Each structure stands twice: as C-alpha cells, then as structure tokens.
C-alpha cells in the first residue's frame, strides 16, 4: 500500500503543530532560563507560582481553537461549508472574549492572586513584577494561537510556522537584551507581549488572503446560533482542554504542597521538572494535535488502513524522542541545569536527583497523551475527559502525596511515572468494557473490524494505468453498474488532465452492502474542482476542499 498522500499531509501539518505547541509553552521556559541566570532561583520559583495562570492560555487554545477546528474540518468533510465557517467565526470571537475577561481579572486582582498562589515574602515582589505585561499576553497570544490552528489546516502550514517562529524568536532575543541590561522581571513578560503582538500582526495577511477557506460569517453571531455553536465547540474541545484545566488545578495544589513541605527549593525544582516536561511534550503533544487534525477526516470516512499507518508513525516518533530525552537527563543532567546557572549552587544535587526520577514519566506518558487527543478527535468526549481527569489530576495527586508519606521527597518525583502507569492500565480496562457494549469495534483506537474486509485503498498517478485498472475492476466485482464505473473513470481523467504531472490520487472504496462509496482525495490544483463541476451533472457527487485536499464523494445505491 502506498501511503504517499497520508504521509505528505502528516509531514506538512507536523512542523506547524510542533511550533504551535512550542509557542504556547516555550515562552515561560525561556523566561525561566533567563530569569534563573540573571536574577536567581527565587525568580524561577516566582515564574512557577504564576504557572497556573499562564496555563490558562493553553486551555483557551485547546478549548476553542482545537474544538472549533475539529468540528470545522468535520463540517467540511460533510460538505457543509457554511457550518464550517460558523464554527470558525464563533471560535475566534469566544477566544477573544474569554482571554479579555481573564486579562481584566488579572489586571485588577493580581495582588490577592499572588497571595492565593502561595507567594512567599521573597517571591511576591518578583511575581508582581513578572505579571506587569502578562495581561496583554493573554489576549494577543490566545488570538494568535487559535487563528494559527486554522491557518495550519487551511493549506498554509508554512505560514502558520512563520507566525510561531516570529513570536518565539523575538521573545528569546528580547529576553536576553532586556534581562542582561538589568531591566528586571517585568521585562521578561514584556518580551513575550511584543513577540506575540507582532505575530498577530502577521496573521492579518491570512485574514486578507482571498484564497483562505475559513471565513467570518454574520450568521454565527446570532444569539441562539452563537450559544449553540459555542456549546458544541466547547464540548468537543473540552477533553483536550481539560488537560490544561486540570494542569492548572494540579500545579496550584502542587505549589501549595511543595511550599509547605520543601519550601522555595521545592518550587524551584518543580519548575525545572515542568520545563523539561514542556520540552519533552513539544513532540508528544505536537504529534497528537497533528493526528487530531487528520483523524476526523480519515475516521469519518472509515479509512482505517491510512489511520493505522499514521498511528504507528506517531507512536514510533514520540517513543524515540521520549527515550532520547530521558537518556540525556540521566547521562548529563548538569547540561540542563547549566541553562539556569544552578550548577554551582547548593541546590544542584537535589534538583539533579529530582529530574532523573521525574524523567521516567516521559516514556510512559506517550500512549495516554496520544489517546486522550485521539478519543477527542473521534468525538468520544466522555472517555477522553475521564482519562484526562485521571491522567492529569486525580492519579498524580494520589501517587505524589501517597509516595511522599511513604518514602519522603523522592516519592514526589516518582509519583508522576507511577500515576502514568496506572493510567495506561485503566485505559486498557475501560476500552475493553466499552467494546463489550459495542462489539463492532476492536483495539484501543476503535477500529470497526467488520469494515476492514469491505474496504480497499488505491493510490493512482497519471502514468500508473495498472492501479487505475485494478480500482475499476474492483468496482465491477462489487456489482456496480457500467455508468457508475464510467463516471469514476472520467473523474480520474479530469483530475489528471487538469493537474500537474505526478499528482497522486488516493481512492477509498467501501462496500456498505446497500451502497458503494468511492471517496477520492488528492493534493492538486484547487481550480480542478471547478473543472469537475462543469464536466458532470449537478448533484452527481459531492466535493469540497478539506485540509488542503480536494475531496470527492461518489455513492451508488445497490438495487
């Protein structure tokens, strides 16, 4: 089987997804590196205390950006362009409103919030300074990140990458310039604000681009429609966003727990562990989000062959990266601590021991993280949400506090991999229980086993007549009539005649007993769909542009 089209789309979306995850999380990591080097450990502890608030930006991006994007793509796959645009519009509007409300709350109540977050006498002034420009970051980073989600799946992944690169590069450069010149903690959040603002300005190019397929529509702003759309989008986006929500709760509880048990050294150490996790999860979450963009298209069409191929690639890449990072931490932890300037400080040995134990979490977390996003993409929201609660909040708290009481401070850092291992076991048992009620599915990824034998995939090119002949012969074997086969062959002719040489066409044929579905995807000229429209009777088949693919659905009912 040739996976040329699926692989090319996966690669095309992967880099922007990785950069998007990096943009949402890396700014606080970079800030930690610089404030640790130029100000000291108390400054790193201050950034950690603000982490629950910073994580809310990720929550909004997943809740409204990822949730809206999944439904928008599904609507396109169902050839409902107006519905797709309604979700895009609502997604952008509600992202702006939510981030604005959060910015206003922080602006007027930062002092009591700093106390509530557990600031000590040493860290509170630093918390207040760092939050100086954090309010503006809420709005500009949320809007830029959500909009980039749509740009990424609107056949402009390179431009989405550029937007994210601009934000991060400017933040890194200005962090060094500001902090090395003695401007203090406030300048770290100022650097992030400037970087995201300029990236948002770049996004205006997409808004003015006439070729974009996501558009603002007024119908989405009608009160009843807006509320209904927002509710559906939130429900779909919640499982992924719940990881961020529960992270906020968990980090807050952990900060209070560490403050009471280990003091500021515990907060500093936990910030270092969180920074390593952010770096490790760039690949993990980035690949999961890439799958989340592609899975709705293939799963809705029951294209399980391509789906299983993409899942295998995703697991292979994430496991290898997790192993490499874990080995690096065990072999040379001093290299990471050097980024904070902690190597020669008294806390070095304590931090090194902690990050080694904590790093065992990376490998075990690959599967549950991917499955939480995958179940969200196939709209099994309840399962995804329950697993998110267990994986992100409930089990880590139980394991960390329980093991601390049993073996001391080492139990805190070992609690994370132990909780993740328990999550994997619960996922397996939960899926088995569900599939007893729904026996048509098999495996962790809910593949309809009865459809496997009824499905055939073909990949055609303009110079591979054998593959085309094989496809047409298969249709004839399914007892389709001559007119149907002739129309399919004519569709191939129009596609190849009006697209560049070497265009790949992926054909999925499914025998549903009462009808035969032919689903065609190809990454060719957009104008080609207009040629198809003029060469066939109106209503003969459905077509749309989805994820940069031209897609065609042609169905023949059996008599």
UniProtKB/TrEMBL annotation:
<feature type="transmembrane region" description="Helical">
    <location>
        <begin position="310"/>
        <end position="332"/>
    </location>
</feature>
<feature type="transmembrane region" description="Helical">
    <location>
        <begin position="159"/>
        <end position="179"/>
    </location>
</feature>
<feature type="transmembrane region" description="Helical">
    <location>
        <begin position="236"/>
        <end position="254"/>
    </location>
</feature>
<feature type="transmembrane region" description="Helical">
    <location>
        <begin position="274"/>
        <end position="298"/>
    </location>
</feature>
<dbReference type="GO" id="GO:0015297">
    <property type="term" value="F:antiporter activity"/>
</dbReference>
<feature type="transmembrane region" description="Helical">
    <location>
        <begin position="382"/>
        <end position="406"/>
    </location>
</feature>
<keyword id="KW-0472">Membrane</keyword>
<feature type="transmembrane region" description="Helical">
    <location>
        <begin position="352"/>
        <end position="375"/>
    </location>
</feature>
<dbReference type="InterPro" id="IPR002528">
    <property type="entry name" value="MATE_fam"/>
</dbReference>
<feature type="transmembrane region" description="Helical">
    <location>
        <begin position="412"/>
        <end position="431"/>
    </location>
</feature>
<keyword id="KW-0812">Transmembrane</keyword>
<dbReference type="GO" id="GO:0042910">
    <property type="term" value="F:xenobiotic transmembrane transporter activity"/>
</dbReference>
<feature type="transmembrane region" description="Helical">
    <location>
        <begin position="86"/>
        <end position="110"/>
    </location>
</feature>
<keyword id="KW-1133">Transmembrane helix</keyword>
<keyword id="KW-1003">Cell membrane</keyword>
<feature type="transmembrane region" description="Helical">
    <location>
        <begin position="130"/>
        <end position="147"/>
    </location>
</feature>
<dbReference type="InterPro" id="IPR052031">
    <property type="entry name" value="Membrane_Transporter-Flippase"/>
</dbReference>
<keyword id="KW-0813">Transport</keyword>
<dbReference type="Pfam" id="PF01554">
    <property type="entry name" value="MatE"/>
</dbReference>
<feature type="transmembrane region" description="Helical">
    <location>
        <begin position="53"/>
        <end position="74"/>
    </location>
</feature>
<feature type="transmembrane region" description="Helical">
    <location>
        <begin position="185"/>
        <end position="207"/>
    </location>
</feature>
<protein>
    <submittedName>
        <fullName>Na+-driven multidrug efflux pump</fullName>
    </submittedName>
</protein>
<dbReference type="GO" id="GO:0005886">
    <property type="term" value="C:plasma membrane"/>
</dbReference>
